[in-house]
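Researcher: If convenient, please comment on what follows.
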Amino acid sequence: RPAAAGRQAAIRAGSGWDPDMPEAAYEGRKIALRLGCFGGHGPSGMGGRRNPGSFKGFIPAWDGDEFAELVQNDEELREWILDGVSRRLWQNPAARHFLEQQVIKMPAYRPRLSDDETSKVVAYIHWLRKQ
């Protein structure tokens, strides 16, 4: 049954709608779509594209294990969204090497997102990770 539940969650997330999706998460998905986030992080944020020069060679999915390695808490998630990088990783010389070398770099959305919009994108990512 877990595999079937996972497929069902993937279909719901891929369609962008779930009857149980909180309004903030739904709005956050729409904002991420508008910003082009799924072009890198994959459909609905569920699987990233190749990224030569990055540590693992691809842009991490928001629902994957790599996400948990790159984002330790909501403050760090907001740094990624708003600044295009986390301070923790930028200050680590080994991590910084990969951040500088990767072909596709995370854009900084600070000039284009309000606090409310950022919170909604965070809500969508939380919802997706729970599916």
Remarks:
- The mean pLDDT is 90.
- The radius of gyration is 15 Å.
